C-alpha cells in the first residue's frame, strides 16, 4: 500500500526501520535440522523472524544427462503454499515460486557445492539425483534467504542411502555417509528503497522496495551467483555497494550454520 | 430449557449451546427444533436472551453502518471501486463521494486516486453482494501519511473496547492518531517512530489476546511499562 511506502521512506530518512532494526541487521535466525527424519534423507527448518521455511532432501537413481555422463544431478523445487501468505494461491507454481527455486538452484549449482562426480554409480547409465524440496510455512518477508539457508542446512544434514546394483533397487536405510559437499555459498538479499540499502526486508518493506539483489557469496568472499528483482534499475555503483554489503553479512550468517 | 455452555467458552460447529425457547439465536448460531446450535468455531457471547458465537478468525463481512478503511482500486465514469477486504469490491458513487459540483467529464482522480486509502462507511449491502459506500459523515476522509496495519476483523470490537475504552488508552499513552476500520485495517499516525511502534505492538497484543478477561488493565500496564 502506498501509505506504508511513504511511511517507510520517512523512517529511512530518520535512519530507522519499521521494527527498529538497523539497515544492516537481520532478524533472529534459527536453524533446526533433521525435522523430518522419517520421510526425508535430510531436512531443515529455518526461521528468520516470523518467516519460516522447511526444506527436505530426497535421492533417487536415474540416467545422467548426455553431456555429463559421469555426474549426478540436482533438482530444486519450491512451492508457495497458500498457508504461508494470503497472497499465495494454490495450483501449479507461478512466477514467484519458480524464481525462488531458481535462486536456490543457481547458487548451489554455480558454486559446484555438490561434488556431482561422486554421485556417479555407473558412467553413462546410473547416477544419483538429489531432489531439494522447499516449502514456505510462513512468509513474513525475505523468503529467498530463508529458503536458501533451509536448503543448505538440509543438504548438510543429509545421510545417503545405498543402491543395490544386483537388484537395481535403492535400499531405503540411512547410512553414515553424508552428501559429498564442497564449498557452500551463502545467499544474502539486499533491498533498495530510495537511496537506502536494507538487508532482510520484512513483508512491508518488500512491498515498498524499488529493487532487490540476491548475491551468493563463497567462503573466500568471491561471488558465484546473483539475481536482480524489483521494477527499478540499479546502477553499477549501487550493485557494487550491494555486493560489499552481502559479503559482509554472509560472514555473519555462515557462523550460524 | 436452559443453557448448556458457559459464557465465553469456545465452541465448535454443531455444538448445542442451549435448549428450549428461553433463548434467541443470533450471529453464528441457528435453531433446530428445541436446540440452539453453533454454526462457527468461536467464543460464546450471552447477552440477556441473545446467544452469539463470535468467530475466532475469518474474513470481513460488510454490514450497513460499518466504518471501514478501503483502498481505491478502480475509477470509472461516475464511481470508484474500493477494496474493503471483502470478496467483492465496494462501490463509491459520485453522489456519495463529494458534495462539490463536478463538471461532466471531469478527472475523478483529483478527488480519489488509485491506491488512495479512505475511511468510509457502508450504507448498503444487497443480496447480489453489491456494497455501497459513502464519504458523507463525521471523520470520513482520505487518509494522508501515517501507516496501515492489518488485524483480525472479528477482533475489532475488542480493539475498540466498550465506548472506545481500549483504543483511547492506546491513543493517550502513545500520543498517536488511530482509526480502526471494522474490516480490520488500522491506521496509525504519530510524530515519533517509537510511539507508533508501541501503538502497533499494543494493537497486535489485543488482537492476539482478545479472548482474555481484564485485557484493558493488562494493556494499560503493558503501555506504562514500555513507556518508562
Structure description:
- The complex is a heterodimer of chains A (257) and B (228).
- Chain A has a single domain, classed as Ribosomal Protein S5, domain 2 (2-Layer Sandwich).
- Chain A is 27% helix and 30% strand.
- Chain A is α+β, with helices and mostly antiparallel strands and 257 residues long.
- Chain B has 3 domains: 10-55, OB fold (Dihydrolipoamide Acetyltransferase, E2P) (Beta Barrel), CATH 2.40.50; 67-134, Nucleic acid-binding proteins (OB fold (Dihydrolipoamide Acetyltransferase, E2P), Beta Barrel), CATH 2.40.50; 147-227, Ribosomal Protein S8, Chain: A, domain 1 (2-Layer Sandwich).
- Chain B has helices at residues 94-97, 156-160, 165-174, 193-208, 215-227; strands at 10-11, 16-19, 24-25, 29-32, 35-38, 42-47, 50-55, 67-75, 79-83, 90-93, 117-125, 131-134, 147-150, 177-180, 185-189.
Give me a quick take on this structure:
The complex is a heterodimer of chains A (257) and B (228). With 257 residues, chain A is of the alpha+beta class.
Q: How many discrete structural domains of chain B? A: 3
What order do the helices and strands of chain B follow? Answer: EEEEEEEEEEHEEEHHEEHH
Quaternary structure: heterodimer
Shape label of chain B: flat
- Spatially, the strands of the biggest sheet of chain B line up as 8-9-10-12-11
Give the rounded overall mean pLDDT of chain B.
Answer: 90
How big a fraction of the residues of chain A is strand?
A: 25-35%
Descriptive keywords:
heterodimer; A: 257 residues; alpha+beta; Ribosomal Protein S5, domain 2; 12 strands; 30% strand; elongated; B: 228 residues; OB fold (Dihydrolipoamide Acetyltransferase, E2P); Ribosomal Protein S8, Chain: A, domain 1; 3 domains; 4-stranded mixed sheet; 5 helices; 15 strands; 32% strand; flat
Question: How is this fold's topology laid out?
Answer:
The complex is a heterodimer of chains A (257) and B (228).
Chain A: H1 2-13, E1 29-33, E2 42-48, E3 51-62, E4 73-78, H2 95-110, E5 120-122, E6 126-138, H3 143-157, E7 162-164, E8 169-171, E9 186-193, E10 196-199, H4 203-208, E11 211-217, E12 223-229, H5 236-256
Parallel strand pairs in A: 4-6
Antiparallel strand pairs in A: 1-2, 2-3, 3-6, 5-6, 7-8, 9-10, 9-11, 11-12
Chain B: E1 10-11, E2 16-19, E3 24-25, E4 29-32, E5 35-38, E6 42-47, E7 50-55, E8 67-75, E9 79-83, E10 90-93, H1 94-97, E11 117-125, E12 131-134, E13 147-150, H2 156-160, H3 165-174, E14 177-180, E15 185-189, H4 193-208, H5 215-227
Parallel strand pairs in B: 3-7, 10-12
Antiparallel strand pairs in B: 1-6, 2-5, 4-5, 6-7, 8-9, 8-11, 9-10, 11-12, 13-15, 14-15
Helix pairs in contact in B: 3-4, 3-5, 4-5
